[in-house]
Amino acid sequence: MDLKLLFISALLGIISCSRAQQEGNECIKANALSCGECIQVGDKCGWCTDAEFLKQGEPTSARCDELESLKKRGCAEAKIENPHGSQRILKNTPVTNRKKGAEKLRPEDITQIQPQKLSLQLRSGEPQNIKLKFKRAEDYPIDLYYLMDLSYSMKDDLENVKNLGTSLMKEMSKITSDFRIGFGSFVEKTVMPYISTTPAKLLNPCTGDQNCTSPFSYKNVLKLTSNGQRFNSLVGQQQISGNLDSPEGGFDAIMQVAVCGEHIGWRNVTRLLVFSTDAGFHFAGDGKLGGIVLPNDGRCHLENDMYTMSHYYDYPSIAHLVQKLSENNIQTIFAVTEEFQPVYKELKNLIPKSAVGTLSANSSNVINLIVDAYNSLSSEVILENSKLPEGVTITYQSRCKNGVVNEGESGRKCSNISIGDEVSFNINITAQGCPKQGKTETIKIKPLGFTEEVEITLSFICECECHKHAMKNSPLCHNGNGSFECGACRCNKGRVGRQCECRKDEVSTEDLDKNCRKDNGTDICSNNGECVCGTCECKKRENPEERYSGKYCECDNFNCDRSNNKLCGGHGRCECRVCVCDANYTGSACDCSLDTSTCLASNKQICNGRGICECGTCRCTDPKFQGPTCEICPTCPGVCTEHKECVQCRAFGTGEKKDTCKRDCSYFNLIEVEDRDKLPQPVQAFPLMHCKERDARDCWFYYTYAVNNNTEKEVHVVKTMECPPGPDIIPIVAGVVAGIVLIGLALLLIWKLLMIIHDRREFAKFEKEKMNAKWDTGENPIYKSAVTTVINPKYEGK
């Protein structure tokens, strides 16, 4: 059973190894017919340009292989095409080390990310690593646009916001000296809640004697300005409005704020949008309630600062908003009441670089809310990239504050960044194949919420350098039927064969097949290939490392002798089913070493002069000797005495070597047995010596000494000694014995005396009873005399 399990495990090991090889060598599996096709398979693949590289029967695709494999197969390194990608930094302005109070800089002169422009040349499968540096600049300009819901429920909030301009300007001056603020308002699409209402109701939608403005979708009240008083003045002139349903049309307003940059006045600085409401929101599809079915086009439709297409386009979707906010580097702060916190927190999870704050019932805490949200947003940097070309992938690794390293999706961001902190990102960009026929592509990487970005131009290595020196219509390719490039023919359309010698319609004919039969046999290409243009092209094995070759595909590199489950013993290569051994090895499986250094004894003699060195191992010619260099004679006199002290110290911890036992006596394996019957007997395959030795206390111990078939020294020892009694105990034992004997004699005499007394008493009693006995003298009635008298009748007394 154990052998069966061993066999199965070995078989599974071979299969897994074969699979690993098969999966690992993608170069051969690709069946590349040109150098360009080969290098697009992966960065491990190379192409041998040596015209004499291929053996008979090997197809052109055999030129494409892993680099080490090509070298082993005889391709010189100089003949291997293996291009590598490269990168150039085109713009590398250092990040700005600016402090508050220093000379004021224009926003476009402030740099927070480095480098700014690069050019990458990508080889398929080979990642190009770029390092980006990001540093939060101090006193960085901020644009903040306050977008407010002016439905009737926000009436008390409007009163507090009327003084927001100067108060917020004062608070934000602690963060930046360059701050601008703007204001916009929204209510709802006019067509939605008032489909069946009256014109008068549209002019004043509020009930009772309340004076309200007519409903509107979005109004840009104040363009971004640094004048806080103007903000207070214009906001103070605003009036609330009303609608009939609870959700508001805030998404229409956010879209217009994001895409109408000229109307809003956005600069290329930090852009904050504060969205203040006490209600939910309509999104894409809700417009159908008012008969609006056209999707939002994501364009600016402001005329006289009013959104004019609310009745024409549906609300934008959340994904559409995310796209436009990201494109325009706008960070959103949702200032909403406690009731709608769960809704907007879910929305925040969908919009990168956004925050949610709890707005008090009358918006009295709006300034603290904005400052806290800004600090939260600005303390985190998240990188995003534009759409990647097909076949291009990108990975991020961030190195953040306090040495924190993040990878995967977390590698895109760093948190808890303070002003002046510097973090870095390692970015790997990899191409697979040759995207879009090698055309140049441009991608951009930028930190979310910031206007700065890194522009990366990608170009792709789709052909080898040797392709530039191709000879078109070369005579080497059968009278010009192909281009000779990179050591092989690249056939023109409609031509096939290694030298493009055949047309596709004549690839297989009876006459051509004759050239593919060895010795006029019946097998075409030895059943290991196909006959193409009268030449054998050997088929490929499942394991790419195994190959057929030869004019008739009669050779292979995997059917040679094996040793230790290794082809050619791991000391040679298999060529046409015969092992070609490395230097110092011989044998059909290259398993015989010619090196005699392993047979040298300590006296510098080979096998101590008692044997022959064969394949690096001594074969002892004297049967009494064994061991790696024929140095051991287990049955020779003196063996027992030689090992006595070491056996004694290791088995019993006594003897002259007990203090140096570990150092001097670790040359054999010690095996303890219970008694002498358990000791090995001399019927084994290797010589064995039985030993009986005595120690200083006259104790005997028994052991065997042998060298097994693996040249390991073995000692079997009986675990207990046989010891005589000690001399000092003999008098005690003798005294005890003598005492026991005397006591026994005394007891015996006492018993004898008692028995005599008892017998005499019994005899006296018997005599007394005998004398006192009185016997009856009457005749026994049943007594008959023993005498019988017979009278002869003929007796007459005469």
TrEMBL record:
Keywords: Calcium, Cell adhesion, Cell junction, Cell membrane, Cell projection, Disulfide bond, EGF-like domain, Glycoprotein, Integrin, Magnesium, Membrane, Metal-binding, Myogenesis, Phosphoprotein, Receptor, Repeat, Signal, Transmembrane, Transmembrane helix. One of its GO terms (molecular function) is signaling receptor activity. It is a single-pass type I membrane protein. Disulfide bonds join 27-464, 35-45, 38-75, 48-64, 206-212, 260-300, 400-414, 434-691, 462-466, 477-489, 486-525, 491-500, 502-516, 531-536, 533-568, 538-553, 555-560, 574-579, 576-607, 581-590, 592-599, 613-618, 615-661, 620-630, 633-636, 640-649, 646-723, 665-699. The chain crosses the membrane at residues 729-751. InterPro entries: EGF_extracell (IPR013111), EGF_integrin_1 (IPR040622), EGF_integrin_2 (IPR057073), Integrin_beta_N (IPR033760), Integrin_bsu (IPR015812), Integrin_bsu_cyt_dom (IPR014836), Integrin_bsu_tail (IPR012896), Integrin_bsu_tail_dom_sf (IPR036349). It is found in: Cell membrane; Cell projection, Invadopodium membrane; Cell projection, Lamellipodium; Cell projection, Ruffle membrane. Residues 34-464 form the Integrin beta subunit VWA domain. Residues 1-20 form the signal peptide. Residues 752-798 form the Integrin beta subunit cytoplasmic domain. GO terms for cellular component: lamellipodium; melanosome; ruffle membrane. Belongs to the integrin beta chain family. This is Integrin beta.
